[in-house]
Amino acid sequence: MRHQKKGRKLSRKRDQRRALLKNLANNLIRYKKIKTTEAKAKELRPFIEKIISKGRKNNLHNKKLIISKLGAMSAKKIFEEIAPRYKTRMGGYTRIIKLPSRKGDASRMAIIELI
What we know:
Blueprint: H1 14-31, E1 33-37, H2 38-56, H3 60-70, H4 72-85, E2 94-99, E3 109-114
Antiparallel strand pairs: 1-3, 2-3
Helix pairs in contact: 2-4, 3-4
């Protein structure tokens, strides 16, 4: 039974899964919208929303946390551009739009974007 085992494995080991989420988050921050599989988009949503919530509170501790997770360039963009847009919003910073299946392997596709 899978009771209280949240999250998807995405057919990867732990380190590869963390690297995948980090790369997806960096691309989402850079381009504001990315096209990926539905499962990856659903895994990315809580990861990026927690980061943006930390970015709303602009202090040294949160800056160091975000830099350690994403890198300096993405952290700078979060604190200067993205987080100030969501100062009054209480959550729900991303939107997932479902797309038709991919032709090659019929996997469900989705667009995840910042609102």
